[in-house]
Amino acid sequence: MPSAEESHGVNKVVDNICKLSPDLLTEACQHILTYLQGHTRGVDSAEISDRFQKAGVSLEHDALQNMIRYLLLTFRSAGKSNVSGDDLVSRLEESSIKWPKASLQALHKLWSEHGASVHAQQEVHSMLSISQLVDMQWKLGMAVSSDTCRSLNSPYVSLLLKIVEPSGQVTHRSFEMTIPQFQNFHKQFKEMAAVMETV
Predict the structure, then answer these.
(1) What pLDDT, in 10s, does the model give residues 72-110?
(2) Cα–Cα distance measured from residue 31 to residue 150, given in angstroms and rounded to the nearest whole number
(3) Which of 115, 113, 132, 46 is closest to 74 using CA atoms?
(4) Average pLDDT for residues 121-142, to the nearest whole number?
């Protein structure tokens, strides 16, 4: 059961959703569902805000952001759990008694149409969760000698990678390469960049 503070936060979001006509709610949710289905790179809150203002609905920036976050979290959670439209409506009714029937019907219809696609995208996303490279630093060095060889005089490239794991944890990985290895590494990166430009 949600705490009183959480319930108050949900009720504030639902109060703001109550200001929307079912058509306006549907339009906002379409933006979110399109993103969750992997068709867009994000949810354009400025576009949603403009649409609300044209329809005569005035919301503060934070209130709009909270509404988008709430709907995004609701749909993402429903997608991961693969719930039906009826189950989604039941969850929403449990979270707040303030939901208008017309809004719940609009959400039920949307989820019945798009829920399976959102679930499939969530499954793909969880299978493909891989680390993300956020920073790379390099330096050129010269190995002068080692414990086994007095005179190496061998250049090398040292790389430090900053990586964000799927869990959100930031890790650092470092390694060294000889100049031929680095040149091969560079060549492969150029090939990847060329392929990515064609996509």
Answers:
(1) 999 999 998 999 999 999 999 998 888 999 999 999 999
(2) 65
(3) 115
(4) 82
Q: What is the value of pTM for the model shown?
A: 0.62
Query: Which positions ≥6 away from 145 have C-beta within 8 Å?
Result: 151, 152
Q: How far from the centroid of its chain's Cα atoms is residue 72's Cα? A: 10
The pLDDT-based confidence of 2 (bands split at 50, 70, 90) is very low
Of 86, 68, 77, 65, residue with least CA distance to 27:
68
- State the CB neighbour count (10 A cutoff) for residue 89: 19
Q: Give the integer Cα–Cα distance in Å for 22 and 8.
A: 23
CB 71 within 8 A of CB 95: no
- Cβ–Cβ under 8 Å, residues 154 and 160: no
Helix (H) or strand (E) holding 162: strand 154-164
3-state DSSP assignment of residue 47: helix
Q: Which long-range contacts (CB under 8 A, 24 or more apart) does 75-83 make?
A: 75/29, 75/32, 75/33, 75/36, 75/111, 75/118, 76/36, 76/118, 76/122, 78/111, 78/115, 78/118, 79/36, 79/115, 79/118, 79/119, 79/121, 79/122, 80/119, 80/122, 80/126, 82/115, 82/119, 83/115
Spell out the residues 6+ positions from residue 137 whose beta carbon is closer than 8 angstroms to its own: 159, 160, 162
* Cross-strand bridge partners of residue 156: 141, 178
All residues at 6 or more sequence positions from 7 whose CB lies less than 8 Å from its CB, including other chains = 95, 96
